[in-house]
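Render Regulation of enolase protein 1-like in 3D.
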Amino acid sequence: MSLTKFTWKDFSWLNEPRKWKTTIDILEISTNYESDFWQETFYNFHHNTGHLFGINVKENITMQVCVEANFEELYDQAGVMIYSDEKHWFKAGIEFNDGQPMIASVLTNELSDWATGIFTGNPGKFWMRITRVDHVICVKYSADKIVWHLLRLCPYPEADKYFIGVFSCSPKRENFKVTFSELDFSVPQEDILHSN
């Protein structure tokens, strides 16, 4: 199947939420309580209960999507994710922390790290682009789908296949509502770091 032909119908769940629906172009999720992805660091707990709607791919790939949500409670989060197993995954998007929605990413290679920054656009609607080329992940975000900013360039373990998709979590509440749209897959640009 062509990369550009993937639709929500081709996706499957890791930790299906109780409430969700799709149309041709849109995925809507209402999260379960205590949904999260995290491995040990600082908090000393292991959570693998977040909602990930994805598809298995083997080839190098770029996925882009629009994310809409009202981030209000601590650790409300939504964005894009690549998942190999409970101990090896990467997620990036908006996460509510320090009293505001922050742009954030987590790389887990046995243990989780976490990095956040100020998001200067409208956190209620933004775009994420994640690219995997061999053993490297490059993630960019945009507030207007025109100008793209680098969020993270990091190594990622090579595997036979990768489960890539969209995720949402709400460790402190249930029914955090997230809408994903404008899903697009493509072959990665030659210069994934500097291409807009």
